[in-house]
Specification:
- This protein has one domain: Aldolase class I (TIM Barrel, Alpha-Beta Barrel).
- It is 32% helix and 19% strand.
- The protein is built from eight helices and eight strands, in the order E-H-E-H-E-H-E-H-E-E-H-E-H-E-H-H.
- It is globular.
Length: 218
Amino acid sequence: MHPTLVAPSILACDFGRLHDEILRAETAGADWLHLDVMDGHFVDNISFGPAFIDATAAVAKVPIDTHLMISRPDHYLPRFISNSHNITVHVEAECDVRATLSAIRQAGRTCGLSLRPGTPFSAVTPFLADIDLLLVMTVEPGFGGQAFQSEMLDKIREAAHLRTQNEWQYRIQVDGGINAATAAQCVQAGSDTLVAGTSVFRAPDIAAAIRAIREARI
């Protein structure tokens, strides 16, 4: 349905060389840049905010995929709209999820919805007809470098089944422990958008790492 995209996670790059790291990822073949915004409340970590997104947008040539891992995405949304192409919020967030997704769309951006590993898939099904992207977290959100949770493949399969059954168009994105081997499992299950941090930015050959993830098949 969709071509496979690779979105390197900026959380894993060298922040002290942000612009160089962005250019390095783009030159290596990144399709999107994935930015994880964490508030220290929704997840037990603090990453960066709107100014960091703006600094990324100042040099990025590919779309910016902003993942709001924050308690009140509805409140902070206006601060991320201008320089994000896609904005993903969590179904567990303390807000009116449907209204927040609608606000993203009304601002001319595509909207995504995500769920934690411990959240049942049924939590997102009421919103699937109204999103452009479903992000299945394959680790507990908050920190990079965690091991891939293979049991989340069932959620990817369910998302792919419902998408086909209902002729919906949303992308199925995965994030957490993604490398060439786990990407192959995710693509086989139905994913088409792969977020990878450590396995890309810390690879000896970043272009080869991105290519291996994009072309991964079982």
